[in-house]
DNA sequence: GACTGGACTGGGAGCGCTTTCAGTCTCAGT
DNA sequence: ACTGAGACTGAAAGCGCTCCCAGTCCAGTC
């Protein structure tokens, strides 16, 4: 440990050039003769030189890292496979760059404050913000942020310049239309959080489809995207509308909970009740019965967020991106 | 955007003190009179000053971030709820400090190289390394690392100074003993990856228990911790030892896959075959039937890793920590 | 009143890198 | 031989902060 770091000066000295020349050579900037460039190259290898990112950051005023902030009071939110996949997508793009990914769960007051500070003071080159609630404190931060912000999922209440979202409304509609098309007439929904963009959009899709079909759209219970919430909501649904024959559940996690409750209630799926989920997480293939669900490209969502941020950092002004969703029919409907 | 940052000099000037005094006041170091301390305090607030972390890092030679590196060629590894929970645990501890969490999935060559570089050149104050394989390239890095390294899970092949692990062997043993105790005699196991510490330890526990019971321990198929792998392994198990009446599966994910295959094969769980998993992920409560499994404190694992790293950074030399596991009996056994 | 120790102060030297800019060199063009 | 364009060079000025250290100041002592 703690062997002194090799500095640019040492490289320059060894290569017999000035520090500036060495710097240019290393960043392969123009205006360095081939001879010197190669001399520097050799010196770098001989010495095992690696530039000090901190010093570089100070000099260039660029930090070299972007933060992914996930909002929500419950830190376990990350445990949702959805986020994990998004992170994987983001990470895969960032890996090709020299940016590092700082994860900020920003759960506690203190954590939020730190995040706020980072946003305001350029302790990161950019930020990706996910799953904002309506009136989320993070949203305010985003506005006064001193760095580019890309939203994952269109937030409620304002239209940010940069965001990537899945076509939730369309997906919700497709799911519901599918229920209609298969002959269900007493269709209910377990929504996601309605203070989140994805939750409301999927719910709107549900309404759209039922309106077109001329069916009653009043069978609704609000959920929270999580499994237990889904189970609870299903119980409520069953209690209030015992005759329902189809249900659109706004997340697979909730759908898994709902399936369990249906089974416990002795309702056969899909014979008595058809169930359609949303997200197409890997577990959806393996539920009993396998879950019909709306696929959204989750890793791609992460990738596109990262790419969009990169684009903004590069000075471009990319347009918001809506990723397509598509229905995957399995045995639960 | 891009409003110039307020610097310490401005604060100092406004407070009518020297930059050094201001610095001391802000870091509440000694040797600052109460008067000046307060003047600085006021100036900070008036100006909205926030110290520049990069500059501070350069001056103090401390980066202010720690990296969590998860090894494994498959980036989707993170999608394992296990890791997600670990991250949550780590994050909760770090949130109380001024360290940020850099996530490094280090999947590609390039990513690995970058990580290696960071480890060697103090681009982070410390590292947490998870799920190393035997002969993992990351292990080599860890040795030549210039910063403290804490391992999550004891790696195979060497004994690091600092690690946090769950008592996998004991857990595997408890799980298997439970199968024995409930009268199973033809007990099989689906192991995890045997090139990982956790995989082998659980397998050893399995062997321990069967040895004591004097039962045959040859019914084994190697899995990979993931759901599909578990399903496949279960198929193999069934094919080779159709008479098995109990199986210890080294992860809940795999157990879920195994349950599915057993169901498809028409074996009733637990009547025909008892199944015990490992990890106690939240999904384990909701499988059909609910899964008997070995609980390990996953978030705590993350928390303790972070705490241990913090301790090392503080100059202490904490001892390795083995977290207890405990059997949770549900309906699958 | 000279002296001492302790509390405080601020100048200044870095931390390692980038980048500007005044020059120097080369060489084709005249 | 002279000129100017263009390629290259390196000294020096930062980036914003920390921290050492030589001082100053002010009781408190004798």
How would you characterize the overall build of this protein?
The structure is a homodimer of 333-residue chains. The mean pLDDT of chain A is 90. The first copy, chain A, folds into three domains: 8-59, 434 Repressor (Amino-terminal Domain) (Orthogonal Bundle); 65-164 and 298-321, Response regulator (Rossmann fold, 3-Layer(aba) Sandwich), CATH 3.40.50.2300; 168-295, Rossmann fold (3-Layer(aba) Sandwich), CATH 3.40.50.2300. In chain A, helix 5 links the parallel strand 1 and strand 2. Chain A has helices at residues 8-15, 19-26, 34-47, 53-60, 81-94, 109-120, 137-144, 168-181, 197-213, 227-240, 252-264, 298-313, and strands at residues 65-70, 100-104, 126-130, 149-152, 163-166, 187-191, 220-222, 246-249, 274-279, 292-295, 321-323, 326-328. In chain A, the strands form two sheets. A six-stranded parallel β-sheet of chain A has the order 2-1-3-4-5-11, sandwiched between helices. In chain A, strands 7-6-8-9-10-12 form a six-stranded mixed β-sheet, with helices on both faces. By secondary structure, chain A is α/β, with parallel strands linked by helices. Helix content of chain A is 44%, strand content 16%. Chain B binds a DNA duplex (30 and 30 nucleotides) through residues 5, 7-9, 12, 17-21, 23-24, 27, 29-33, 36, 51-52, 54-61. Chains A, B: InterPro entries: HTH_LacI (IPR000843), LacI/GalR-like_sensor (IPR046335), Lambda_DNA-bd_dom_sf (IPR010982), Peripla_BP_I (IPR028082). Chains A, B: GO terms for molecular function: DNA binding. Chains A, B: Keywords: DNA-binding, Transcription, Transcription regulation.
């Amino acid at each position: 440990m703690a062997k002194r770091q090799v500095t640019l000066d040492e490289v320059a000295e060894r290569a017999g050039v000035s520090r500036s020349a060495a710097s240019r050579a290393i960043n392969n900037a123009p205006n360095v003769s081939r001879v010197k460039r190669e001399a520097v190259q050799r010196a770098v290898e001989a010495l095992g030189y690696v530039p000090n990112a901190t010093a570089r950051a100070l000099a260039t005023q660029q930090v070299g890292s972007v933060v992914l902030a996930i909002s929500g009071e419950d830190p376990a939110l990350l445990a949702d496979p959805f986020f994990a996949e998004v992170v994987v997508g983001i990470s895969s793009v960032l890996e090709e760059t020299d940016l590092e990914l700082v994860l900020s769960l920003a759960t506690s007051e203190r954590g939020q404050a730190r995040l706020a500070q980072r946003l305001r003071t350029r302790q990161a080159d950019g930020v990706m913000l996910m799953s904002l609630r309506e009136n989320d404190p993070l949203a305010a931060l985003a506005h006064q942020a001193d760095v580019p912000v890309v939203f994952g999922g269109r937030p409620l209440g304002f239209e940010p310049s940069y965001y990537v979202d899945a076509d939730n409304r369309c997906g919700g509609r497709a799911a519901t239309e599918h229920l209609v098309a298969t002959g269900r007439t007493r269709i209910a929904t377990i929504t996601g959080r309605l203070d989140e963009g994805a939750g409301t959009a999927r719910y709107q899709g549900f309404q759209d489809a039922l309106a077109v079909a001329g069916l009653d759209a009043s069978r609704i219970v609000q959920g929270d995207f999580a499994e237990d919430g889904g189970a609870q909501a299903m119980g409520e649904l069953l209690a209030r509308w015992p005759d329902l024959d189809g249900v659109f559940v706004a997340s697979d996690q909730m759908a898994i909970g709902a399936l369990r409750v249906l089974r416990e209630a002795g309702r056969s799926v899909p014979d008595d009740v058809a169930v359609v989920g949303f997200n197409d997480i890997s577990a959806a293939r393996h539920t009993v019965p396998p879950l019909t669900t709306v696929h959204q490209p989750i890793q791609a969502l992460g990738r596109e967020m990262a790419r969009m941020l990169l684009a903004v950092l590069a000075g471009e002004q990319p347009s918001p991106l809506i990723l397509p969703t598509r229905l995957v029919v399995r045995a639960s409907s």
